[in-house]
Design goal:
Layout: E1 2-5, E2 8-11, H1 13-17, H2 19-34, H3 50-56, E3 59-67, H4 74-80, E4 85-96, E5 103-108, E6 124-132, E7 135-137, E8 145-146, H5 151-162
Antiparallel strand pairs: 1-2, 3-4, 3-6, 4-5, 6-7, 6-8
Length: 173
């Protein structure tokens, strides 16, 4: 069956012959959208201020990664059968919860959508670590950053540590 629309002529006979095939394809396509499994990915809210991060952290320090390796490919993760990466740091400056010239182990995710921090060996970082399941952990959602990129954090941490005590004011009813 030939149909003329404007200046073009269309042959709808092929469409009619394959109507069943097109209908099946459309149904399969329609149902495939509903059967996709949800994928969890990292989602960070706005980062805390230095003061808030200080209040929530179990340890804050500057340290060099002396042991540990971030996975470069997803296949490396699958073959290792681990749930987290572990990195050993040599602490060069302590702000909270550790001592200088000591080694400390920090756990983080793998970085493929699980919020893991991509540490690199022999690089120096300012690490904000929290305690979870008895381990010190960090993620990209904390203020953890390469030490070369956190000058303001150093100033604010020094200021926080220079002040002693706390004042609470308000009315108790």
């Amino acid at each position: 069956m030939w149909v003329r629309i404007g200046f073009a002529i269309y042959d709808f006979s092929l469409l009619m012959k394959h109507k069943l095939l097109i209908s099946i394809f459309a149904l399969v396509l329609l149902f495939s959208f509903g059967s996709v499994d949800p994928v969890l990915a990292c989602s960070c809210l706005q980062k805390n201020t230095v003061c808030e991060a200080f209040g929530e952290a179990k340890a804050i320090f500057v340290g060099e990664v002396i042991e540990g390796k971030s996975a470069e490919r997803m296949s490396e993760l699958l073959s290792d059968n681990r749930s987290q990466n572990s990195f050993t740091f040599k602490v060069t400056q302590n702000f909270l919860g550790t001592k200088e010239n000591k080694n400390i182990v920090i756990h983080t995710g793998f970085g493929f959508g699980d919020c893991g921090f991509p540490f690199e060996k022999e690089e120096t970082y300012l690490v904000y670590a929290y305690e979870s399941e008895g381990k010190l952990q960090t993620s990209i959602c904390t203020r953890t950053r390469h030490a070369a990129r956190v000058e303001n954090d150093f100033k604010e941490l020094d200021y926080l540590l220079s002040k002693s005590g706390a004042k609470i004011s308000g009315t108790v009813t």
